[in-house]
Specification:
Mean pLDDT: 80
Structural class: mainly alpha
Distance between the termini: 97 Å
Number of strands: 0
Helix content: 40-55%
Low-confidence stretches: none
Order of helices and strands: H
Length: 57
Amino acid sequence: MKANKAPAPAASNEGRGLAETGTDDNTDAIGGVAAALIVAGGATSFAVRRRKTRRAA
């Protein structure tokens, strides 16, 4: 029987290193920006409603 032998690499990776697998995790930054935008929108909505009721009175 023949022994199964792994093939030799086709090219040398000297100096190039390994490929990056995975992603940068920016979830916290994206979540923070989203929360800030929601708070800013809520504050703007509150301020506009408050201004309208003062003018009507």
